[in-house]
Write a structure and sequence with these properties.
Number of domains: 2
Strand content: 15-25%
Radius of gyration: 23 Å
CATH topology of the largest domain: Glutamine Phosphoribosylpyrophosphate, subunit 1, domain 1
Strand order of the largest sheet: 7-8-1-2-9-10
Largest sheet: 6 strands, antiparallel
Structural class: alpha+beta
CATH architecture of the largest domain: 4-Layer Sandwich
Mean pLDDT: 92
Low-confidence stretches: 178-187
Helix content: 40-55%
Number of helices: 11
CATH class of the largest domain: Alpha Beta
Length: 302
């Protein structure tokens, strides 16, 4: 009932899992990733213990093949399972039980494994593998999370789950990243879930676009140059435009950093009109000077 990919990026050392299925909250069951250790996808009649057990075995020195053999040996229901493991050296191992529902299968390549069961037709793992391999190399311009998303897109284009789509999850951990949630405020990485949606892959892409746009506009390398800040804001807005990103760009970059108050005000007007509570937040900012033209232009209800 699921298609997934486990993958290792030898250039960055990142490990990741991407998965989509026609069940809610797939991210709570299938993907297991520990930075510097390994990544596991457990699906079909999923045994969530495979995730914790395999990661612990990898942490203690086993490679993917031996970790897989160990978790399977302890499960009398293994023929109903499908599982894939990649370790921190890029070695992969996968298993598809004889009782997993058709169409099913898996394909392994350098540092990755793609697997699927209960698909509309054959060829889904092969399509995922082709898309992932085509996006490889330092000149691809895509991080591991985008490459994984591309593989999930390819799976859906090849027919996907016979029942359709419902939920998706994508986790990528850097070396040293833990099992728990990782955000851009702590360690680089990706941890996104769409638990229930008509088109979860599109929702996932929107989340990633939103993150990338905000990261771009929060970079001093970008905002220290007014010309570059304007250019990148325009580019980020084409990716995803929302009031949060525009508010901070107008206040911190245009007004506070570059004293472009009129430009900042022009950008803030429609935001304030749509939601006057942004003005409340504006007046609460301790870093905004008392004589800022923004405070004068936008009055607070407090």
């Amino acid at each position: 009932m699921t298609y997934s990919i486990v993958a290792f990026d030898e250039e960055t050392g990142e490990l990741g899992v991407g998965v989509q299925t026609h069940r809610p909250a797939v991210g709570s069951i299938v993907p297991w990733v520990k930075g510097g250790v390994g990544a596991v996808a457990t699906q079909a009649s999923a045994n969530a213990r495979y995730g914790t057990q395999a990661l612990e075995l990898l942490k203690n020195g086993l490679d993917a093949e031996h970790a897989l053999a160990a978790v399977l040996a302890g499960d009398d229901e293994r023929e109903r399972r499908q599982v894939a493991i990649v370790d921190s050296r890029g070695m992969v191992a996968a298993f598809t039980g004889s009782m997993a529902l058709e169409a099913k299968g898996s394909v392994q390549g350098k540092g990755f494994s793609c697997q699927a069961n209960m698909m509309l037709g054959s060829g889904v793992p092969e399509a995922m593998a082709s898309a992932f391999e085509a996006s490889s190399g330092s000149g691809s311009g895509s991080g591991l999370d985008r490459r994984i998303l591309g593989a999930l897109d390819a799976a859906q284009a090849a027919g996907g789950d016979v029942r359709g789509m419902q939920s998706v999850a994508l986790q990528v951990r850097p070396p040293g990243g833990g099992v728990g949630p990782v955000t851009r405020l702590t360690l680089p990485g990706t941890d996104f879930r769409v638990d229930h949606a008509a088109d979860p892959l599109q929702e996932l892409r929107s989340l990633m676009d939103n993150r990338d746009a905000e990261n771009l506009m929060g970079s001093d390398e970008v905002t220290d140059s007014l010309e570059r800040a304007r250019s990148e804001f325009s580019r980020a807005s084409r990716m995803v435009f929302h009031g949060e990103m525009a508010f901070w760009y107008a206040v911190r970059t245009l007004s506070m950093k570059h004293q472009e108050h009129d430009e900042a005000i022009a950008l803030l007007v429609p935001i304030m009109e749509k939601n006057p509570n942004w003005a409340v937040l504006l007046h609460r900012l301790p870093e905004l000077s008392d004589d800022s033209p923004l405070r004068e232009r936008f009055t607070s209800s407090e």
